[in-house]
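Inverse folding, one chain.
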């Protein structure tokens, strides 16, 4: 672990994607393959055209903007391998997806179809489906950061 990573995380440890003792669910238990593919693609945007500052990243439950990029890779891998995610990680994934899709200031926004190859209309329909399916899992984080 680099000194920068140790500075970002209390105790010097980079948090696991799913924390021990947290009840997690795999994507296949909750979502269709297309919905999982959408979330994975949205997370990829944070390492590319999306622009996030530290304050927004913290609001999404990450330590800072670099932690968002680092964890986005871990979360993408976990979704791709169908490993269970803790409820806080599902909240991070959902909020990061919502912001990267919609926001033109911080996310991909109007460039979404160009950078992802996914049209807006089917994306929003799929995102609404994901929101409904994850509502019970992420409900404890409504109105607060998954990092709290």
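Residues assigned per position:
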């Amino acid at each position: 672990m680099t000194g920068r990573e140790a500075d970002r995380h209390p105790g010097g440890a980079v948090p696991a994607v799913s924390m021990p003792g947290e009840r997690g669910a795999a994507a296949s238990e909750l979502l269709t393959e297309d919905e999982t593919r959408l979330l994975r693609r949205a997370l990829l945007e944070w390492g590319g055209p999306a622009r996030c500052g530290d304050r927004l990243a913290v609001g999404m439950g990450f330590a800072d903007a670099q932690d968002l990029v680092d964890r986005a890779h871990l979360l993408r891998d976990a979704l791709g391998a169908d490993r269970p995610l803790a409820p806080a990680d599902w909240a991070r994934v959902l909020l990061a997806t919502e912001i990267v899709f919609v926001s033109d200031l911080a996310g991909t926004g109007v460039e979404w179809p160009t950078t992802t190859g996914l049209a807006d209309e089917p994306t929003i329909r799929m995102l609404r489906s994901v929101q409904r399916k994850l509502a019970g899992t992420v409900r404890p984080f409504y109105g607060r950061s998954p990092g709290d």
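Residues 1-16 have pLDDT under 50 and may be disordered. Residues 120-138 form the longest helix (19 residues).
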